[in-house]
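Below is a filled-in request sheet from our internal design queue. Each sheet records the structural input a requester submitted and the sequence that came back. We keep these sheets so that new team members can see what a complete request looks like end to end.

REQUESTER: design group, bay 2
PRIORITY: normal
MODE: inverse folding
CHAIN LENGTH: 333
BACKBONE (tokenized):
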């Protein structure tokens, strides 16, 4: 039996108002996050990955608003809650943020202050989501630092973030995300700012922690290599939509959307002939305010069929089933 769905995102729409008009940053995003599994969200810069993460935690700030859709925590259970309908400052939402759902940022200093020691900040985070005494919270903070692989945590707890290397800082960022004992973790490009060796260590750490704690992980990245290593299922995003969803093996073996195929062609391969040029996708993701008519990917698509792609929008990917939002797919069906 498939694992229980812990978070169901349905038709999520987010828009930003500006003097030039309304920009639809997310245009009907749907996916399921299953208990204990890793959902990879992949796409180029600007496709809406971070806005998706921020929406779930209700961290989108004005002029951004959630203009439609549902964010269902524990769907289909008596505890079901639609985060899209909660006040971002409500007690319930503050308990979700950092409590049920932890967030790991690309830049750990987003979650940390330069003015306080690592320990002070971790202790504060532990106490926010529990009734622990000061002494218990400190012991838990040391334990958290140990869990994320920080050597000599009893000493390091009194360090300031700037005294630590980038890799250790990201480990502290992960400890911060885990301080409220969440069962869901959203990691937004957690290794993008790190060198390759540290990147591999942090990914291994995330994998170990996920297995140990049974965490449901939503991993946002632009890097197909990270997806290959970490994800169970993958949602490929383009211009504020999910254009393909598939189990990871299937995605790599038989990608269905031309955009996914283009992203995969851009991954360096150890099998490629020396000096073979790495393919890149022509053009750039358009600004969401300049969304092309028809299929949003058609101006960059090397496989477009003709008028249909320029004039009509392909059907969305059916939620929870492998598929691609592409007229080629519809033709094949
Ligand atoms: N504060 C904002 N004001 C206006 N538009 C915004 C704002 N934040 C995001 N957007 C719009 O939402 C779109 C999606 O942004 P988002 O940061 O989610 O992309 P991303 O895929 O996470 O890219 P990156 O990897 O560069 O963060 C952007 O192209 C931008 O136009």
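RETURNED SEQUENCE:
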């Amino acid at each position: 039996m498939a694992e229980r769905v812990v978070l169901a995102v349905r038709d999520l729409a987010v828009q930003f108002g500006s003097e030039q008009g309304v920009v639809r940053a997310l245009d009907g995003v749907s996916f399921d996050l299953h208990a204990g599994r890793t959902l990879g969200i992949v796409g180029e810069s600007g496709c809406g990955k971070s806005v998706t993460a921020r929406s779930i935690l209700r961290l989108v700030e004005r002029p951004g608003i959630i203009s439609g859709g549902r964010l269902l925590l524990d769907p289909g259970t008596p505890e079901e809650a639609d985060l899209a309908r909660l006040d971002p400052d409500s007690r319930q939402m503050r308990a979700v943020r950092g409590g049920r759902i932890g967030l790991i940022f690309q830049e750990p200093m987003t979650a940390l202050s330069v003015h306080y020691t690592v320990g002070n900040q971790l202790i504060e985070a532990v106490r926010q989501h529990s009734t622990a005494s000061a002494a218990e919270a400190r012991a838990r903070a040391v334990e958290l630092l140990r869990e994320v692989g920080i050597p000599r945590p009893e000493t390091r707890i009194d360090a300031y973030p700037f005294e630590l290397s980038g890799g250790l800082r990201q480990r502290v960022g992960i400890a911060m995300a885990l301080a409220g004992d969440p069962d869901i973790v959203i990691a937004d490009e957690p290794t993008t700012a790190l060198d390759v060796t540290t990147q591999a260590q942090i990914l291994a750490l995330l994998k170990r922690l996920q297995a140990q704690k049974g965490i449901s992980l939503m991993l946002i990245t632009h890097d197909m290599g990270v997806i290959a290593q970490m994800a169970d299922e993958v949602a490929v995003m383009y211009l504020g939509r999910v254009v393909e969803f598939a189990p990871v093996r299937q995605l790599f073996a038989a990608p269905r959307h031309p955009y996914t195929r283009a992203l995969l062609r851009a991954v360096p391969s150890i099998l490629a002939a020396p000096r073979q040029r790495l393919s890149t996708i022509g053009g750039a993701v358009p600004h969401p305010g300049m969304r092309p008519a028809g299929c949003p990917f058609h101006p960059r698509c090397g496989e477009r069929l003709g008028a249909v792609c320029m004039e009509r929008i392909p059907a969305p990917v059916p939620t929870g089933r492998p598929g691609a939002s592409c007229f080629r797919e519809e033709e094949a069906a």
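SHEET NOTES:
- DSSP finds twelve helices and eleven strands in the chain.
- The chain has a mean pLDDT of 92.
FILED BY: M.R.
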